[in-house]
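pls design
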């Protein structure tokens, strides 16, 4: 979750790097070993290059150099060639095949968390911002290993070149160290600025990703074209990008000024070093070969110290980015995912006891002090206008939300005492929003592989849901793939057929509690009537909840709750509520009048057609 300003990082620098290394050691050891090999080859290539130049000059200029210089030169050339080959192999492996696996390991953890975290956490803006930061932070994991490789490389070079430069003059050490320290503090200043302002563009990045997904989502494609939404979406993207570009420009302006100043420090250090070496040459204190060695060492020494300082500074930047990733994985789940009470067997009773629920950042509760009982084997209908809280009530009942106040009891036991994953198995649910996975029809129904499905149960679920006729006419029948956007040979279902597929999935699960949230919204009248006729069969030996706007569909239910503003304003059977003459009866009469008028219009239209045809 989001941290308040000034709060300490959740994990330290070394703890974060230990996390990355530990994860790789357990899951991708070869990648880590190749990185260490790469880090070993880099300083060998750099340092040996300086000595090769020295012995080349000594071989040419020193009369009595003899075979020793030639042998040293040949040995150093062979050693550098071997180190270069190793470096080339490691570079290619790490940046191609290895990186793909490296990214997959950490992305899999993020993916698994997204799939398993509590549903109500996923709806919170703070959690979604945290996910966006985690995705961005995961992109820095490769840099973390690269930074460690560079640290090992620069550390080795600093030690070697310190010894070389100290042999020339001790003053060469502060000449290179002082600019490196200034470079370190400048880099820290830039990183602090970036970290402090990350929250400014995280939400913007999430908005850009959402707009991009709308352009890529096949389900949006028809609306975009028919309603000429492409200009509007592009306008939204441009406006959002302008906000993001503002921060890009601001960060660039800020960092460029500091970078220009910082980049002069190694140059200044190198110039001072060269002047000292030239002075010693005039003092006859340096030979021609050592002159070349010291000149190359001065440049490499300054680069190595600045590289070391940059690595240490970069650790802080990487720590914060790795923490974004780890903080998302550490978002606590409120529900019980450990050991819980044993689930009841057979039919179940659900009791709401003074239950209220308020969405995060909402001013008023959506569900207010609500109490009722879904009895064993009862068919309960929940009706009400849009925004009354019907779907929220269903999500509370099946455990997707946890009550803000009150408690929900399953056979007299608070549902918080059950393992939440086990609790989910008690429910077969059909929600208003349903998407098919790009697998076969049978697998969409069973939510499992072909080896685990029961063909007879699949056929029964298709028959009861009214989808069997459609499936029989498909070339692959139940084995037909869905989602043409993924497979060329797949098929796509209409809205009504998708709703039937959702119903078939719920029927196949055959759980003791059946929840139907507007299950006929996308069905034609004939299919809707068939569903009503089969509802008694669907709900046999089950407790069931049926949500609908069409009050005529509630007649077959044992009890009806009329919700308004998150509260039960009327309760009873259809006949009881009609006799009461309250809000339910008023809404029913309004709908009945609409259907009567529609039937009269159809009858009148048919009469006019017959008269025109002379019948």
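designed seq:
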């Amino acid at each position: 979750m989001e941290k308040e300003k000034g709060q300490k990082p959740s994990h330290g620098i070394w703890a974060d790097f230990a996390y990355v290394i530990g994860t790789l050691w357990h899951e991708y050891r070869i990648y880590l070993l190749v990185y260490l090999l790469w880090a070993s080859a880099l300083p060998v290539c750099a340092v040996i290059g300086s000595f090769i130049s020295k012995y080349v000059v000594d071989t040419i200029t020193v009369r009595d150099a003899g075979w020793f210089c030639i042998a040293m030169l040949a040995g150093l050339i062979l050693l550098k060639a071997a180190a270069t080959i190793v470096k080339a192999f490691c570079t290619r492996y790490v940046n191609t095949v290895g990186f793909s696996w490296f990214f997959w390991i950490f992305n899999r953890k993020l993916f698994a968390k997204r799939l398993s975290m509590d549903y109500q956490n996923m709806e919170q803006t703070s959690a979604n911002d945290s996910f966006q930061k985690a995705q961005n932070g995961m992109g820095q994991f490769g840099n973390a290993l690269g930074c460690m490789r560079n640290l090992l490389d620069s550390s080795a070079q600093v030690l070697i070149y310190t010894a070389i430069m100290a042999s020339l003059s001790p003053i060469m050490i502060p000449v290179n160290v002082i600019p490196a320290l200034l470079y370190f503090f400048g880099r820290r200043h830039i990183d602090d600025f970036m970290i402090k302002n990350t929250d400014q563009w995280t939400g913007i990045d999430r908005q850009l990703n959402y707009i991009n997904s709308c352009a890529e989502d096949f389900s949006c494609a028809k609306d975009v074209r028919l309603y000429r939404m492409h200009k509007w979406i592009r306008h939204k993207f441009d406006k959002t990008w302008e906000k993001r570009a503002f921060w890009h420009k601001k960060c660039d302006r800020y960092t460029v000024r500091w970078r220009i100043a910082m980049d002069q420090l190694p140059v200044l250090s190198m110039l001072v070093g060269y002047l000292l070496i030239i002075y010693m040459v005039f003092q006859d204190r340096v030979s021609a070969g050592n002159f070349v060695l010291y000149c190359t060492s001065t440049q490499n020494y300054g680069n190595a110290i600045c590289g070391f300082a940059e690595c240490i500074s970069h650790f802080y930047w990487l720590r914060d980015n790795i923490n974004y990733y780890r903080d998302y994985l550490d978002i606590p789940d409120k529900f019980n995912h450990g050991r819980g009470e044993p689930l009841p067997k057979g039919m179940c009773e659900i009791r709401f006891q003074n239950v209220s629920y308020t969405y995060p950042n909402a001013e008023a509760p959506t569900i207010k002090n609500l109490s009722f009982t879904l009895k064993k084997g009862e068919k309960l209908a929940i009706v009400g206008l849009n925004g009354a809280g019907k779907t929220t009530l269903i999500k509370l009942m099946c455990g997707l939300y946890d009550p803000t106040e009150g408690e929900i009891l399953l056979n007299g036991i608070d549902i918080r005492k059950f393992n939440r994953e086990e609790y989910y198995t008690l429910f077969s649910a059909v929600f208003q929003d349903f998407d098919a996975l790009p697998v076969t029809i049978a697998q969409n129904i069973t939510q499992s592989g072909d080896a685990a499905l029961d063909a007879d149960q699949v056929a029964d679920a298709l028959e009861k849901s009214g989808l069997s006729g459609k499936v029989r006419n498909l070339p692959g029948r139940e084995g037909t793939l869905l989602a043409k956007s993924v497979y060329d040979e797949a098929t796509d279902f209409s809205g009504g057929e998708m709703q039937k597929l959702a119903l078939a999935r719920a029927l196949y699960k055959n759980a003791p509690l059946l929840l139907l949230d507007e299950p006929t919204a996308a069905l034609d009248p004939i299919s809707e009537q068939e569903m009503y006729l089969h509802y008694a069969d669907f709900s046999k030996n089950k407790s069931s909840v049926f949500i609908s706007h069409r009050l005529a569909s509630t007649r077959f239910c044992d009890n009806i709750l009329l919700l308004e503003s998150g509260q039960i304003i009327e309760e009873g059977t259809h006949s009881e509520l009609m006799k009461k003459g309250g809000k339910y009866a008023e809404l029913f009469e309004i709908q009945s009048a609409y259907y009567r008028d529609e039937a009269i219009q159809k009858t009148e239209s048919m009469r006019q057609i017959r008269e025109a045809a002379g019948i």
